[in-house]
Design brief:
The chain has a single domain, classed as Up-down Bundle (Ferritin), CATH 1.20.1260.10. The chain is built from 5 helices and no strands. The chain has helices spanning 5-34, 38-64, 84-112, 115-145, 149-159. Helix 2 (38-64) packs parallel to helix 5. The longest helix is centred in the last third of the chain and has 31 residues, at 115-145. The protein starts with a helix and ends in a 5-residue tail after the last helix.
């Protein structure tokens, strides 16, 4: 079963969105590096790499289904945030938007009767639960740390432990 045009366009849009996510998290890594928070920067770099992997899953799936990948311009992400907490909050809000986008893709696949795409997207639904949870946990830790530089440095050290 070949991909219908509407589904192909939506999958190509999501591929672009995943690359934007990588770009956003790389911009956040640079922001954290500029603040001397190497652990936060490392965590975001790993996150950016993961988003590229997600984009490549869409790339491969489109090709596997006989579609054509059409790359689009990647929007410039923000480069400054009011605080470390605001940057992490922005990451959580972004992941929530990605969750909505994936859910919309599932709805479209169901509407078009495209079971293979619906099954393919199941992995992303589970992944989004993990993505939102990770950002929410960091945000909660930052909120608990408050104005404590010691707590911030401990959190920075913890985030530096993230594996590639």
């Amino acid at each position: 079963m070949e991909l219908k045009r509407e589904m192909l366009d939506a999958l190509n849009s999501q591929l672009n969105a995943e690359l934007y996510s990588a770009y956003l998290y790389l911009a956040m890594a640079a922001y954290f590096d500029s603040k001397g928070l190497k652990g936060f920067a490392h965590w975001m770099r790993v996150q950016a790499e993961e988003e590229v992997e997600h984009a490549m899953k869409f790339y491969d799936y489109i090709n596997d289904r006989g579609g054509r990948v059409i790359l689009r311009a990647i929007e410039k992400p923000p480069t400054e945030w009011d605080s470390i907490t605001d940057a992490i909050r922005a990451g959580l809000e972004h992941e929530r938007a990605v969750t909505e986008a994936i859910s919309s893709l599932v709805d479209l696949a169901r509407k078009l009767g495209d079971k293979p795409t619906e099954v393919f997207l199941h992995w992303f639904i589970e992944e989004q639960v993990e993505e939102e949870k990770s950002f929410a946990e960091i945000l909660q830790a930052l909120q608990l740390a408050g104005e404590s530089p010691q707590a911030l440095l401990l959190l920075d050290q913890r985030l530096a432990q993230r594996k590639d």
